[in-house]
Amino acid sequence: MSDIGDLIRLAGRRPEPPAFRAARVRAAVEAEWRRTLERRRWMVWRWTFVAAALAVAAYWFHPTARREAPPPPQVATVVRVEGSVRLVSSPSAPRLLTTGDRLVAGAVADTTAGGRAALQLASGVALRIKEGTRIVVEAPSSVRLEHGTIYLDTKSGASASRRIDVRTPQGTVYNLGTRFEVEAGSGAVRIRVRNGQVRVDRAGPEVRVIAAQAVTLLPDRRVEWGTAPPFGKEWSWVEALAPPFVVEGATLESFLDWVSGELGLTWRYADRPAERHGHAVVLHGSIEGLTPQEAIEAVLPTCGMSQRTSRGELIVARAAR
Length: 321
Known about the structure:
By secondary structure, this protein is of the alpha+beta class. It has helices at residues 2-11, 19-61, 236-240, 252-263, 272-280, 292-299; strands spanning 74-82, 86-87, 95-96, 102-104, 107-110, 116-121, 126-129, 134-139, 142-153, 165-168, 171-175, 179-185, 188-195, 197-201, 207-210, 213-217, 223-227, 266-269, 305-310, 313-318.
């Protein structure tokens, strides 16, 4: 090793290369270095892309890896059907609705063939559809009335009212704890309130309708007011679609609550003896197929009771012996 060192020292300092040659060498080395980096980057990106493509392919083509889209939420159940009621939003073809059918969001029910139906919305609101109606159930608490007549009971035996909005050509109707009817046709919308009140959001001033009032909303923004007694023959179509009441094991007073609500009446005992007797009565049997009026006429005599109506009030008394 010492001989080699001596030779190097004897050779002396080598001359410096010209500056332009050193610059060219540095430039060539730097260019090759950059090309090497770019090739490595391209290889990394290419294999990353291939891995991602393989992962996507495995997801879509593996039968157990892909999740199916969730079905639309159910928004209503058909409680009662009379005549021909069509579900025209069926994915395949229009079909007839039957009791027990469950409807999903966006379901379109059509009773223009002469039928009528009662639905229970998932929110708890009872909805009844008159013949000649087309309605869209958009959500558990929202429906759109295209034409025809519907009735809504937002209590349905509950202690607190449920929310519902009805979209019509003349504005949106919101309930404020009520039973009410909405009719849409010929450009106008008519609302009758049985109890509670509703408000209507539309172009112009807000409209509020209270119990026993009727209002007609006209296309030119005019509003016509009238009266709407909560009982009488005009409500007969609603009473005919009343949900079934289970008599067996029910108290007389729960039955009277149901009947009075369906007939648009309030009720009371005639006197204390009638009240003491009524508190103790438990019902048995069935009223299937009877309207609320027919039911009360059939049930009370079996309990030793009688009834009469006066000025919107149902008065229950002990039957004469």
